[in-house]
Amino acid sequence: DGLDNVEVLAQVPGEEMAERVYGRTRVLLMPSSYESWGRAGCVALASGIPVVAHPTPGLCESLGEAGVFVDR
Where are the domains of the chain? Predict the structure, then answer.
């Protein structure tokens, strides 16, 4: 498949997110067509993880110039 380095996770409890997800993430992709705020993107940026996102109004506002925006 060419996705040998991709791991799809089921639901991860909040207290395990930092270690199991953000501690192992190199880049966060957010191709959502709608995000009201984008908490995951904000946490990723605060953790030093770059965020590539579709430019929804909520993500543009919350990520600002720190986010990389690409049309889907």
Answer: 26-69
